[in-house]
């Protein structure tokens, strides 16, 4: 009897414990998503709504985004009124279990208007400039906000997330020292920007923005304004113009012809939500500006 029992057991199906599905994390921009991918490791599946080659102020709200967010556990917002389109996506997703994290929490905003903001000032954000992820020090703040959201959504893996967050912050600090060393020769120099995307980056690395192609944020340049920039560039011997890749080339190329200024076409956001993308983005920018 025992022999037949053992033989029967050999034909029973083998039950393999199911692994928990990765936590789905939606990020407004790839920078937030990349940091989440680093901290979340193999416990998360991250996707980004915005793309690095698109204007983050103007992301079209599509039903497909709402469907994806309806299946997510966490949504990472930029905040500081940059991604108001995120609110429309979140509302449309109708996901009552979604944990929404404002990644600007704890950031000290730059260029925060002192008085009342109105349309005559252009696309000015009343809570301050929202491109804060371009300061490596703020990357560590973002990581803390991402960590809190992941732990809330998945407390069983809290220790795993904490360890990865600590690793990210250590790697960020190590590489930031190298970036500052590479750009040390440019410290104190003035640059021209196209839009107001670069104030956190220039502040972090000791550069000064002497003027912008846009006379006001979001307002196209006039001939008079460009003539004024030509005078500033020549008077201050400015050699670099930082242009976001999604803005037209006409005005920067005019300034280049008139003054010889070098135009650096850069994306304010990293290329993907891969775990190394946020850090690699700084590598790319620093390499281009330093000529290394």
Quick structural gist:
The protein has 292 residues and is α/β, with parallel strands linked by helices. The protein has helices spanning 2-10, 30-40, 63-70, 84-93, 136-153, 158-182, 199-204, 223-236, 250-259, 277-290, and strands at 23-27, 44-48, 74-77, 99-102, 190-193, 208-212, 240-244, 262-266.
Would you kindly provide a written description of the structure presented here, covering whatever features stand out?
The protein has 2 domains: 23-178, Rossmann fold; 181-290, 3-Layer(aba) Sandwich (Rossmann fold), CATH 3.40.50. Helices cover 43% and strands 13% of the residues. The protein has 10 helices and 8 strands. The strands form 2 sheets. It has a 4-stranded parallel sheet with strand order 2-1-3-4, covered by helices on one side. Helix 2 (30-40) packs across helix 6, helix 3 (63-70) packs across helix 4 and helix 8 (223-236) crosses helix 9 (250-259). The longest helix has 25 residues, at 158-182. It is globular and about 60 Å long.
